[in-house]
């Protein structure tokens, strides 16, 4: 009884300390930091604007679990709202998700009924506006936050800081593999080491990233001069430096208590003691209050961990090295796969598709027919029924299921569920009312729907989807079968990449792999893949380049018979480019006023299909090229397969120098 009384007294003391000493004083020192516009107009108070904002913030928070950067817009005309978030590149997806969840709540509380706002949390930033800002540099209202402890030799220290930050700026801005992010350390004294980090939002061009960080370096020097640590908060970039290792992956060489970060806000010795009391006391209080939930939480976590372990074990089957293709009936882990929350029973799918009626068939995919269906809740779906004679067995099926379930991006088709029952292997996707891109693009009548604006939207959407797979998703993923028939179109002609059966995952720092089983589609495969079995992110870049040329010209690459000297669209485009007659490729359905832009896109396409994979740009560079005319494009080298005739593509190739087998799918419309 005495222990109980003492415990209650301790709790009362801690709570009293919190409310009397520290609460208001500390709130000003810690994130979130915010900048809210002064504009409050009818749009911000309008119900439809608020609905768009809520939807946007929800979507941003959802995507933070699978990406460290994302932008999106919601609404129509005057009620439209644009949003963007960025997490520091070293944080995990779980930490990014948690940070953005906090930021969405903070931005609503700190900036209510505002048309524009930005919030910075400890490891992330969130921004929205009723005016489009994506791809536009903004360095106004930069905020500097510094450590309360000053350095003893400010001139020497500031020179070291600026030099380090400028070196990192060049690395982040102009190194295409850096993902607009760089960190580094530099010795300062025998006991102290400077640690620094810079990062830009991914919508900026290299030059814009450089300008943003240079402005940030100037601002942090003027606002935080002499401080032993500081951060600069900008809408388009971020930088920070400290005399301790504050980011993951840094080697801690000096981390004494005096170096811990505290934002300057007129603190005192009393405040430090309050921080200590509150830190220890709050931790103790949380432990006590949550103790009764530990057992239940552990049980739930254990169950979830078990499921995640099953998924991880399956995904490991599909890392960059290929393996044998076992029969599905003997596939280990089948029961666990059926236990997944997205599993749909066969009876439901039979009912949805009217027993796979021919009248419900949408087309023929690479591995089997696709049917339209209606689930019991009224949702329209597309059901991919894998043929029992298909080359896609347990490996590819499980690959496609587990891969797509983990991917969330507006330009990737969404997998709603799947079914495995005896010989049936079924994938249930969201329904795309405008079918696949090849159906529209290569039909002279339907292609008239695709004006230049819609074609650019499709190209940019495909590029963003592939960029997500290569750099922004949880794993580095190579699609390996990007083509027009694997791009689906929604109601508004927005593209969604589909068919991940041939996709492969790269683990760790791997960037290239070799396979003995080459699968793909004639005309879209990179030469190093088709001839040597080597594939990398540059293989997808090649396929994207072919697809880009097809979209802007309205012509197929494969089966192209324009001249006897060029049997492919790529070869013919290269021939005309060198003859300075590339405008001959312009689709007659397009406006002649687009000539300059058309030539620029031909140029980008030819850069993507260069024979040497090293010469091809990354998808992040391609996205930047597609955004504006200010980017200087290098001269393309000769594409692969630009000369000579090719054998029929419905066959398997064998070569004396390799035992690889080449399985190539048809490019006929489905």
UniProtKB/TrEMBL annotation:
Residue span, Protein kinase domain: 356-641
Signal sequence extent: 1-29
UniProt superkingdom: Eukaryota
CDD domains in alphabetical order: Gnk2-like, STKc_IRAK
Domain Gnk2-homologous: from-to ranges: 30-133, 139-246
Segments passing through the bilayer: 272-298
Gene Ontology molecular-function annotations: ATP binding; protein serine/threonine kinase activity
Database matches in SMART domains: S_TKc
GO cellular component: plasma membrane
Predominant location category: membrane
Keywords, sorted A to Z: ATP-binding, Glycoprotein, Kinase, Membrane, Nucleotide-binding, Phosphoprotein, Receptor, Repeat, Serine/threonine-protein kinase, Signal, Transferase, Transmembrane, Transmembrane helix
The protein's name in its UniProt record: Cysteine-rich receptor-like protein kinase 10
